[in-house]
Each structure stands twice: as C-alpha cells, then as structure tokens.
Specification:
The complex is a heterodimer. Chain A has six helices and no strands. Chain A is mainly alpha-helical. In chain A, helix 2 (31-51) packs antiparallel against helix 3. By secondary structure, chain B is mainly α. The chains are: A mainly alpha, B mainly alpha.
Chain lengths: 170, 509
C-alpha cells in the first residue's frame, strides 16, 4: 500500500469532499441539485476505492452508481416535473427530527465502538491477489453461481411487477 | 438413494429440481399470459396451468423425499425439513391460486400475471427453506417479498390495496435493510456467510467480547421479526392484510410466514446455537409480547380480515415458542403447526371470500350472523377453522395437537420454558374471545333482515374450504402418522456433524 504525504493528502481530499457533498446533498431543496451533489459523493467514493487497490469496484462505482442509477434518478425527477415546492422535507415535526438525531448518534456510537476493535490490516480469509477482477469473478461464477442466477429471477419479478402495476386499469 | 455433490453445478441444479421446474414453468406461463390479447378465458387457463405446475412440483418433491436424496454440505440443504416445508408452501400456493380464480371473477379482475407472480414468490420461498447460506436467505426473502409487494396491489381499482402495497413495500424495504446490515456484520465477525461455518465460529466463550457479532445477530433477528410480523415489528400487518386482495392476504398469512419462519428456524439452529445465552432473552420477550399483544388487540376487531391479521400475529408468537425451545421436538412441532395453521387460516379466508360481496364489502363480524341458516356447511367449515386456530380438541382437529406439540417442545427444552408455556395456554384461552365470537355469530344470532342473498359457492372455493376442513379433522383424529413424519423432518442441528440429511429421514413414512 503506497504511503506518504501524497497518499494521505489525496485520502483526506476525497474523503472530506465526499462528506461535504453528502451534507450539501441532503440539505438541497432542488431535487436536481441534490442529485448532482450525490454524483459528486459517488465519484469521491470511487476515488477512495481505487486508492485502496480496488480498481474494479471503483470503475463499477462510477459506471453503475454515478452513471446508470443517477441518470435514472434524474429521469424520474424530470418526468415528475417536481419544480420547486415550498418544502420538500418529509421530516417536519420536532419529534421526528429528534428521533432522526438519536438514530444518527447511535450509528455514530456504533461506528466508534467498532473502530476501537482491532481489525486486522488485511482480512486473513481474503488471499492477496495481484489480479483486479479475479477476486470478484471467481466467487461470482463459481462459489456463488446459484445466488447470481437467482438474482436474474429476482430482476424478472421486479420487471413483471412494474408492468403489472403500471399497466392501464382494466 | 440419490446423493448430490453440490460443488458441481450440474448436480447442484439436480438438487434444486423442484425450484427449477417451478420457476421455468412459471416463466413459460408468463409467455402464455403475454401471448395475444388479455382475456378472462386466458387468465383462467393460466391459473389452471399454475395449479397443475404446483402439483407437478409437489410430485417431484415427494419423489425426491421418498428416494432419500442427500447432499454434501453446501449452499443449499437437501433434507426432509426442506421437503416438508416446501409441501406446505405448495399447498398454500394451490389454495391461493384456486381462491384467486374465484376472487378474480367476483371482483372482475383480469390479470393472468397474478398467478405467475404467486408461482415465482413460491419459488423464492422454496429457495428460502433450503438456504444454508445467508446470501441465499437474503435472495429468497427478496424474491418472495418483491413478488408479494406487487400482489398486494394487483387490484388497481382499490385505493386500499394500493395503500397496502405501498406500505408493505416501504416497511419491507426498511426491514430488508436491517437484515442485510445484520448479515454484513455477521460476515465481518466470522468471515463467512455459510451457516455451518458460522456455527463453528460462534461458540459460547468469546461471544461477550464480540460486539460486532452480537449486533449482527440482533439486526438479523429484527429483520426476521418484521417478516414474520412479531410484536413490536407488527405495525404494518393489519393495514396490509386488510387492504390486500383476500387470496393474497391468505397467502401472506400462511405461506410467507411459514417460509420466513423456516429460514429463521434453520439459521438459528445451524448458525447460532453457540450463542444461545445472548439471544435467548430477546427471543423469549419477542414470543411473549407477540402472543399477548396479538391476542388482546384481536379481541376488539370487528372486521374479519383484520381479526385474522391479528390472529396471525398471535400465531407467530406461538411459533416463536417452538423457536425458543430450540430442540428436536421444536422442529417437529413447528412443521405440524405450520400445516395446521396454513389449512385453518386459508380455509377461513376462503369462507370470507364466499361470504363477501364485490368490492371487498361484507367482511364484518355482523355479516356472518346467522350464516348457519343460509349456508349450514359453510358455517360448519368456518367453525372447524376457528376451533382449529383456537386449538380446541376433536372439533378443532389438528389445531389442538399443533399447540400440544409446541407446549411439549417448550417443556422438553434443556431449560424448560415453563413461563412461555403458561403464557401460551393463557393467551389461547384469551383467543377464545374472538374465535368463538365468530362461531356464536354464525350459529346463535339471526340473519339480519337487510343482508343480501349469498352468491352460490363456486367450485374452487368449495374444494378449498371443504378439503381443508376435512384434512384438519382427519389428522386431528389420527395425528400419529403425521407426527412421526414431522419428528423425523428435523434440520441438521450442529455444525460439528454437517451431514445434510439425517439418516432416518424417511423412516417415519
């Protein structure tokens, strides 16, 4: 793992950008602006993945999340023609805000507890691979071939369901 | 004697033959449904073919069970626990489709895809009952749930159904988050998603010092509790059950619950017996609260569908007692209970469809008043279902033995669950308040003057209602053969002996 000043600088650059973008994303009223800030977060995460020697995951992150899924988001926003409603926020009441705050703090506490546990620098059950895609393809097409195939049935059900629900009322 | 080596894809697919036949057949039916113009006749044909396909799948399962199929430890289990639950699920599937054929005619729905989605949901449930890997558990639950979210909203004209579907979808997605988070944490703590491997890693001594593992088990439990509608994760159940089309409500109350419970049972028995000390209290309270709250709220319901929804919550509590017992007897009691509960609940929903009017009207308790005077046999069958759910001897058929075996399992546990057993009996007495109210309304109160004339009972509903009642009564008088079967249908228990199927698997037949 490359260490040193440049690596650390890039880590904090992308990490902080991701956090700041996420914060701006949840506070935007305009749905399109929010979606674009989310794209920014996704790109920063992709950069972090690549820095962790997971180039394939990084590329997929850009293609699938920042690319495909966000495009669908923007399409939905466009088709619904939301405009600028006075308040988009679903969480309005004080009670709901307090519950959200408590849940958020609980998650933070959990993260801190988990971080205090000494995690091994390298997970022993993951062999160190030189190839980028083998660690993904090997389980995907051998060990977990069956779950992979079931996913296709799952997607079929979702497509059929979308058609059934969206079809003209009979 | 068949033996499958699950590491070879060809043999793995042979071990999954019933699921493959069902899923591929469902896709062919989807093609038939989509071919040409949508019509009532076509939808009925697809429904009939779906029933035939389910029967073929049942035949394959019985054949594989009888030939004593076995497998090397792997991603799926090949044991009699799986076959037994699969058969119950397929029975529920056939009943759902039969009731659906009737319901579609009453409500004038034309949707052949409904039957295909039911079949695909059942395929997901069958994968769930066979899953020996948390990834398979997750995919099975999702395949089942996504199909059922859609089925709940398949009646596009009903605002209530739309609400039920959306509510179920949002809360279901939320609970999936818990489930997945739990799986991720368990993987992080043990380095595996395989149930047997997790079982070897999770041992009593070091549990306390592994917060990640404990958090994972807790989140997994929350995810499962949502799916089986255990208190306090039951809030979605009444609205969803009331709003969904009645056959789908029956399907959710019986098959979805049975499949989720089977997975809960297998995961807890294969992966976490070593952590018994840490999850025992949580499950204990879950079972106790579910029994008490479900029964008390059911008492004040006036709508039969809502009443049956709360009754299904209460029954989830009784089933949780079998999970807490965590012994061989518990597994046998579980299988017997699931079959009795499935027949009684689905039969009751069949009667609700037979009595109801288009637009899901006439489902109040008062609409059942005097049913005995106009439809004596329907009233008699409904009485059997109510008494079976209550657990009444003789007239309640299998229902009595179902509760009896759960009680036996609870008292037979290494640390006898006397408290839960007492609570089970007390809450069952409480449940007489609402089950007997239906019986009394049917037999003792006069039919109200402005009650509409009942429609003639159509063949599918007729068959479902009376066949369920007769099976319940028959096995209530001769439970012996069935319990022997159930007792031998226990899943592999410990990871130390990971043979996929107990050698005495078919001895009880």
């Amino acid at each position: 793992m490359p260490n040193g000043f440049v690596y650390e600088f890039l880590f904090y650059l992308f990490g902080l950008t991701a956090i700041v973008s996420a914060a701006i994303f949840v506070t935007r009223r305009n749905a399109v602006a929010a979606a674009l800030w989310l794209v920014n977060t996704m790109f920063c995460l992709a950069a972090l993945y690549i820095m962790m020697d997971a180039q394939f995951v990084g590329a997929i992150q850009v293609l699938v999340y920042a690319g495909a899924i966000m495009v669908v988001f923007l399409f939905v926003v466009m088709l619904l023609n939301l405009g600028l409603p006075p308040s988009v926020a679903d969480i309005k009441s004080k009670g709901a805000r307090i519950i959200a705050l408590v849940a958020g703090l609980a998650m933070l506490a959990e993260l801190l507890v988990l971080a205090r546990q000494k995690l091994p620098a390298e997970l022993p059950w993951l062999p160190r691979e030189t190839s980028v895609t083998t660690p993904i393809t090997e389980p995907l097409f051998r060990t977990y071939l069956l779950p992979f195939e079931i996913t296709s049935v799952l997607l079929l059900v979702a497509i059929v369901g979308a058609v059934v629900l969206a079809k003209r009322r009979s | 004697m068949m033996s499958f080596d699950l590491s070879i894809p060809g043999q793995l697919s042979l071990a999954l033959l019933p699921e493959l036949v069902l899923a591929v057949g469902a896709m062919l039916l989807l093609l038939i449904a989509a071919w040409g113009r949508e019509s009532d006749a076509r939808a009925r044909t697809v429904g009939m073919l779906a029933i035939v396909l389910s029967l073929i799948t049942m035949a394959i399962i019985v054949w594989m069970w009888l030939s004593g199929a076995k497998a090397t430890p792997g991603i799926i289990a090949v044991d009699s626990f799986r076959w037994a639950t699969d058969l119950v699920i397929l029975i529920a599937t056939i009943i759902t489709i039969a009731l659906g054929l009737d319901y579609a005619r009453v409500e004038q729905l034309v949707s052949a895809e409904t039957y295909v989605l039911v079949l695909l949901a059942s395929a997901g449930m069958m994968l769930l009952t066979s899953a020996r890997d948390l990834i398979m558990v997750f995919l099975g639950i999702e395949l089942m749930s996504i199909a059922v979210y859609i089925l709940a909203g398949v009646n596009r004209r009903s605002a209530k159904a739309a609400e039920a579907s959306l509510k179920y979808f949002l809360l279901g997605a939320f609970s999936t988050g818990f489930l997945l988070y739990g799986i991720a944490l368990i993987y992080g703590a043990t380095g595996s998603t395989d149930l047997a491997t997790i079982g070897t890693k999770v041992t009593g001594a070091t549990i306390g010092s592994q917060p990640m593992l404990l958090a994972g088990i807790a989140l997994l439990l929350v995810g499962f509790a949502f799916k089986v509608a255990a208190v306090p994760f039951h809030m979605w159940t009444p609205d969803v059950y009331e709003g969904a089309p009645t056959p789908i409500t029956a399907y959710m109350a019986a098959a979805v619950k049975a499949a989720a419970f089977a997975a809960l049972f297998r995961v807890w028995r294969e992966a976490f017996p070593g952590a018994l000390g840490s999850w025992h209290l949580a499950l204990w309270w879950l079972a106790a609260l579910t029994m008490v709250v479900g029964n008390i709220i059911a008492l004040v319901q006036k709508n039969i569908k809502r009443m049956l929804a709360y009754s299904s919550i209460a029954h989830a509590g009784y089933l949780l007692v079998a999970v807490v017992a965590n012994n061989q007897l518990g597994s046998a009691a579980f299988l017997f209970y699931v079959l009795a509960y499935t027949l009684a609940t689905m039969g009751a929903f069949g009667v609700v469809i037979a009595v109801g009017e288009p637009g899901e009207r006439h489902q109040q308790l008062s609409d059942f008043a005097g049913l005995w005077t106009v439809r004596p046999w329907l009233a008699a069958a409904m009485a059997v279902f109510m008494l079976a759910l209550l657990g009444f001897p003789i007239a309640g058929g299998m229902g009595f033995f179902a509760k009896w075996y759960v009680l036996q399992a609870a008292l037979d546990a290494t640390h006898p669950e006397t408290g839960l057993a007492v609570l089970l009996v007390l809450t069952s007495v409480l449940s007489a308040g609402y089950y007997l109210a239906v019986v009394m309304a049917m037999f003792m109160r006069p039919r109200s003057a402005d009650a509409p004339a009942l429609r003639p009972v159509r063949t599918p509903t007729f068959l479902v209602v009376y066949a369920s009642a007769i099976i319940l009564l028959f096995f209530g008088i001769f439970p012996g053969g069935f319990t022997g079967l159930a007792r031998n249908s226990v899943p592999t228990i410990t990871a130390s002996a990971p043979s996929a199927s107990p050698p005495t698997a078919v001895a009880g037949r």
